[in-house]
Amino acid sequence: MSAILPPAERLWWKHPLDRVEGTWIVIALVWCLTMFVMMVGWHIYGKQNLSTETYRTTPEQFSVKAQAMVDKYTVRTETDEKIPVVHPPAGSDVYLVARLWSWWPIIELEKDKTYRLHLTSMDYNHGFSLQPTNINIQVVPGFEHVVNVTPNQSGQFSVVCNEYCGINHHSMVGRLYVK
Length: 179
Ligand code: CUA
Known about the structure:
Blueprint: H1 19-44, E1 53-56, H2 59-73, E2 74-78, E3 83-86, E4 93-99, E5 102-104, E6 106-109, E7 115-121, E8 126-131, E9 135-139, E10 143-149, E11 155-161, E12 173-178
Parallel strand pairs: 3-6, 4-7, 6-12
Antiparallel strand pairs: 1-10, 2-3, 4-5, 7-10, 8-9, 8-11, 11-12
The chain binds dinuclear copper ion.
Dinuclear copper ion (CUA) binds at residues 101, 126, 161, 163-165, 169, 172.
């Protein structure tokens, strides 16, 4: 018997199933189903999955809220493009806008304080990936994704776009500070 020769009996699927093979098929099936159920389960147990809320929005509606936050809580600007750095109070709503090919504004949070982070896209599908942590959220135009965040480490983090969104996708990098 060889893997590259045709089987001796053409109707191999009509042979009785070996006990060992059957056992492995059952084990694999049970494990697949366990993993499938845990895709939902990890929203409840542990910190593996982020549970986001999603609402309908429009670029205009979201821009108004983001601009109001920026007008109120900007503490300085950074980079040559003078991107506002926003330091909103603990417990408040924080807005982050994704568009071709930037994240706006720069957000500064405080460690161990909880915020409601709102995300949307002004144009195409983008991906919010917070580096170097393992946090990934799809950012879809027309929808407002909200996640309760409590940063537990301070430092400077990068927001990297994790969905291919065109020629400058690789340059779509933002900043997030935790003090
Ligand atoms: Cu935005 Cu890739």
